[in-house]
Each structure stands twice: as C-alpha cells, then as structure tokens.
Amino acid sequence: MKQFACATVVDGCPGVVRGETEEEVLGLAAAHAAEAHGMSDLSPEVVEAVRAGISDA
Ligand SMILES: [Zn+2]
C-alpha cells in the first residue's frame, strides 16, 4: 500500500489517501484536492509535490 498525507502540500489538512499503487494514490489525491480544496486542475508542480510525498503504508 501507498499513502499520501495532504498536509504535505496543504498546511494543516488532515486528509490522508491510500491506494495499492502510486498512480492510484495520485488519482485519489487529485479527487481529494478537487473536493476539499477546490483544486480542479493540479499543476505539474503540485503533482510532483504529491508524488514526492507518497510513502509506503
Ligand atoms: Zn487536503
């Protein structure tokens, strides 16, 4: 399992997403960002930050 803590990118956000693969976690993180933060379009910089913040769960 892989996981990503949203607080890595958005200060103070308690959101954590988990998935089987890095790609799945990226997708879930994008969905969370859209839903919780109104970020419907993630910039390449944000995607890179999310990717870098993914860790083994
Ligand atoms: Zn968040």
Describe the structure concisely.
The chain is α+β, with helices and mostly antiparallel strands and 57 residues long. Helix content is 46%, strand content 18%. The protein has one domain.
Secondary structure blueprint with pairings:
Blueprint: E1 2-5, E2 16-19, H1 22-37, H2 44-53, E3 55-56
Antiparallel strand pairs: 1-2, 1-3
Q: How would you describe this protein?
A:
The chain is of the alpha+beta class and 57 residues long. The protein has helices spanning 22-37, 44-53, and strands at residues 2-5, 16-19, 55-56. It has one domain. It has 2 helices and 3 strands. Strands 2-1-3 form a 3-stranded antiparallel β-sheet, with helices on one face. The N and C termini lie close together (5 Å). Bound molecules: zinc ion. Zinc ion binds next to helix 1.
**What is the CA–CA distance across the termini?**
5 Å
Instruction: Output the radius of gyration.
Output: 10 Å
Rounded mean pLDDT is 96
Q: Strand tally, please?
A: 3
Task: Name the assembly state.
Answer: single chain
Envelope shape: globular
Taking pLDDT < 50 over at least 5 consecutive residues as the criterion, the unreliable ranges are: none
Which strand-content bin applies to the residues?
15-25%
Estimate nothing, just give the exact number of structural domains. 1
Number of helices: 2
